From TrEMBL:
Location(s), subcellular: Cytoplasmic vesicle, Secretory vesicle, Synaptic vesicle membrane; Endoplasmic reticulum membrane; Recycling endosome
Protein source organism: Sapajus apella (Brown-capped capuchin)
Key words of the record: Calcium, Cytoplasmic vesicle, Endoplasmic reticulum, Endosome, Membrane, Metal-binding, Repeat, Synapse, Transmembrane, Transmembrane helix
Annotated membrane topology: Multi-pass membrane protein
Protein family per UniProt: Belongs to the MCTP family.
Keyword Nucleus: no
Name this polypeptide is given: Multiple C2 and transmembrane domain-containing protein 1
Gene3D superfamilies: C2 domain
One Gene Ontology term, aspect cellular component: recycling endosome
Protein's GO biological process: regulation of neurotransmitter secretion
Record carries keyword Zinc-finger: no
A Pfam cross-reference name: C2
Length: 710
């Protein structure tokens, strides 16, 4: 065991990353893959002076000290400014050493990125480590060094004008737990954008930011007049509105994206309950962006103590039931239902601190609505007793409840998570949910007790099923994973093999491999072809749904859980960790960055194709009964329409609608009702992720009460 005392002195001639010719540098120290120290940020300075000290405990000297310098960008991804290594094995023990490190970028080894000056001293701690008292002394000394480092960080935090640490979820919502309104934005198009590529074109995309909320549009390849037609929502925290920062970029594979221009929207200047068409001139660049912006009143999203319970108040409950009664079908179609979540307590959580405790708080998310509880300090069995209420815009949404450990000097640590589809909720039942890992593929330590109520209008929910899903504006970026690529390939192969096996079966009927079966197929073929009418197609699908339904209610459930997908999901996190270590050691990802983007695209296409086939299968397998019943209603209606109305009239109406759609609504977002319906049906992967784990019997509240009495 060694103690490494570092004094981060200063930097000289660092790289400029901001448009003003300066940077806001800070330094990360890492050993192996673990970050051991992060410096404060020096604003607008290429020759920063830190004079910060850090005390680090080192197990061995095989791993070098990895120094990375970044330029801080609020709300955006921080820019890389260079890195360097310090070989700890080359340091003399017990002797202060001044070190000058030259910063380099692996992608551009010829660039001069400046230097970092350090003072280090390495002290051995193993001499008497086998003695108990010496071990305790070493541990206490290490803890004192760590506390000193933490106090130094806190001191500059309080004195700094800008809060520049990583944003934690609790920080994001500390100012207000209530949305004041919703900003609905439709990105229509860009006009005469600046050409950034050698071919005289660009691959533009647009970033939006309102406070901590972000949205990134899709990339439109090789055009200066892109047509996006994308719609998304932001939330307003303040009555007076806010400023939406908009930046346009040109996508460049393998290198830094080019900046096209920026503009802003002042929401305080826009009237509410009215759609505004805005043509915004891009500053620091060329061209215009065309937007539709609508400000609407706040949805019911709130947090309160357990004593304040909307549904337990009989009068308020009747008002909510009346609001979503079948008689109010056409009143505010976007308001589908009401969700109340009681976050009661958690038990047996993971210990995230060296003291063997955690400081847990809970985040409750429904699409883009996020609320959180207070933090219960030094406790592995916290009680929150909070009630969260949400407006439901899509009954097929998934409620996500995540438990974090609050860490004052860095981002919050993940403790566990559950994902609960709204349609699977049993109203008013207090349940113990086993917490899962980040990928929702396996259990982690602890359970959380929730009581959930859902009230919704089934007709509104059915109509909303046929429009595009709400897109989450805070999502993790996809990255290359061999395990994920293999999993998606196997899923797609299974879907294709269903079609191949069906083709073999039909061909076997033609070959008379089984004479009785071939004879029956021949008679059926003659009968169907001679009497065929178009309405029989949805009728056959209707009979298939009905047949599977009777199999399920009779106890002959033909839905088989895919153990291959489950096993691969459970192994995925471990494989990703191995991939990360290998890529960091070999620099593989850095060398084939452009190829990675192509591989990720192929990986996502495999996922989409496999998910499409699985969603069709799960519709007929009654995986989500609400959607299967909705399919039955739709097929019945389609059967009647095709039976009563000649096909040419149906095609004529369809064609007229398609040809006149853009004339009637120029800024309408194109959608396919069938694909929107299937997007609500979970794939096999999502079925596994949303599946509840069986809680440990020891966590039963009745057994716990009995033990307490004992």
């Amino acid at each position: 065991m060694y103690q490494l005392d570092i004094t981060l002195r200063r930097g000289q001639s660092l790289a400029a990353r901001d448009r003003g010719g300066t940077s806001d540098p800070y330094v990360k120290f890492k050993i192996g893959r673990k970050e051991v120290f992060r410096s404060k940020i020096i604003h607008k300075n290429l020759n920063p002076v830190w004079e910060e000290k850090a005390c680090i405990l080192v197990d061995h000297l095989r791993e070098p000290l990895y120094i990375k310098v970044f330029d801080y960008d609020f709300g955006l991804q921080d820019d890389f400014m260079g890195s360097a290594f310090l070989d700890l094995a080359q340091l003399e023990l017990n002797r202060p050493t001044d070190v000058t490190l030259t910063l380099k970028d692996p992608h551009y080894p010829d660039h001069d990125l400046g230097i970092i000056l350090l003072s280090v001293i390495l002290t051995p701690k193993e001499g008497e480590s086998r003695d108990v008292q010496s071990s305790i002394h070493s541990f206490l000394h290490w803890r004192i060094c760590e506390i000193k480092t933490m106090l130094m960080r806190k001191s500059w935090k309080r004195s700094s004008k800008f809060q520049t640490q990583s944003l934690r979820l609790s920080d994001l919502h500390r100012k207000s737990h209530l949305w004041r309104g919703i900003v609905s934005i439709t990105l229509i198009e860009g006009r005469d954008l600046k050409a950034m590529d050698s071919n005289g074109l660009s691959d533009p995309y647009v970033k939006f930011r309102l406070g901590h909320q972000k949205y990134k549009s899709k990339i439109m390849p090789k055009t200066l007049n892109p047509q996006w037609r994308e719609q998304f929502d932001f939330h307003l925290y303040e009555e007076r509105g806010g400023i939406i920062d908009i930046t346009a970029w040109d996508k460049d594979a393998g290198k830094r994206d080019d900046f096209i221009g920026r503009c802003q929207v002042d929401l305080s200047a826009l009237s509410r309950e009215q759609t505004h068409k805005l043509e915004l001139q891009l500053e620091e660049g060329e061209g215009h962006l065309v937007l539709l912006v609508t400000l609407t009143a706040s949805a019911t999203v709130s947090i309160s103590d357990l004593s304040v319970n909307s549904l337990e108040d009989q009068k308020e409950r009747e008002e909510i039931l009346k609001r979503y009664s079948p008689l109010r079908i056409f009143h505010n179609l976007k308001d589908v239902g009401f969700l109340q979540v009681k976050v009661i307590r958690a038990e047996g959580l993971m210990a995230a601190d060296v003291t063997g405790k955690s400081d847990p708080f809970c985040v409750v998310e429904l699409n883009n609505d996020r609320l959180l509880t207070h933090t219960v300090y030094k406790n592995l069995n916290p009680e929150w007793n909070k009630v969260f209420t949400f407006n439901i815009k899509d009954i097929h949404s998934v409620l996500e409840v995540t438990v974090y450990d609050e860490d004052r000097d860095r981002s919050a640590d993940f403790l566990g998570k559950v994902a609960i589809p709204l349609l699977s909720i049993q109203n008013g039942e207090q349940k113990a949910y086993v917490l899962k890992n980040k990928q929702l593929t396996g259990p982690t330590k602890g359970v959380i007790y929730l009581e959930i109520d859902v009230i919704f209008n089934a007709v509104k929910a059915s109509l909303r099923t046929l429009i595009p899903k709400e897109q989450k504006y805070i999502e993790e970026e996809n990255r290359l994973s061999k395990q994920l690529l293999l999993r998606n390939f196997i899923r797609m192969k299974r879907c294709v093999m269903v079609l191949v096996n069906a083709a073999y079966y039909v061909n076997s009927c033609f070959d008379w491999d089984s004479p009785p079966r071939s004879l029956a197929a021949f008679v059926l073929f003659l009968f169907v072809v001679w009497n065929f009418e178009l309405y029989m197609i949805p009728l056959v699908l209707l009979l298939l749904l009905t047949w599977n339904y009777f199999l399920i209610i009779s106890g002959k459930d033909n839905r088989q859980r895919d153990t291959v997908v489950e096993d691969m999901l459970e192994d995925e996190e471990e494989e990703d960790d191995k991939d990360d270590k290998d890529s960091e050691k070999k620099g593989f990802i850095n060398k084939i960055y452009a190829i990675q983007e192509v591989c990720v695209s192929v990986q996502n296409i495999l996922d989409e194709v496999a998910s499409f086939g699985e969603r069709i299968k799960n519709t007929f397998n009654w995986t989500v009964p609400f959607l299967s019943w909705l399919a039955i209603v739709a097929l019945c209606v389609l059967t009647v329409i095709l039976y009563c109305i000649p096909l040419r009239y149906i095609v004529l109406v369809w064609g007229i609608n398609k040809f006149t759609k853009k004339l009637r609504s120029p800024y309408a977002i194109d959608n396919n009702e069938l694909l929107d319906f299937l997007s609500r049906v979970p794939s096999d992967v999502q079925v596994v992720q949303y599946q509840e784990l069986k809680p440990d019997p020891s966590h039963s509240p009745y057994k716990r009460k009995k033990n307490n009495l004992g």
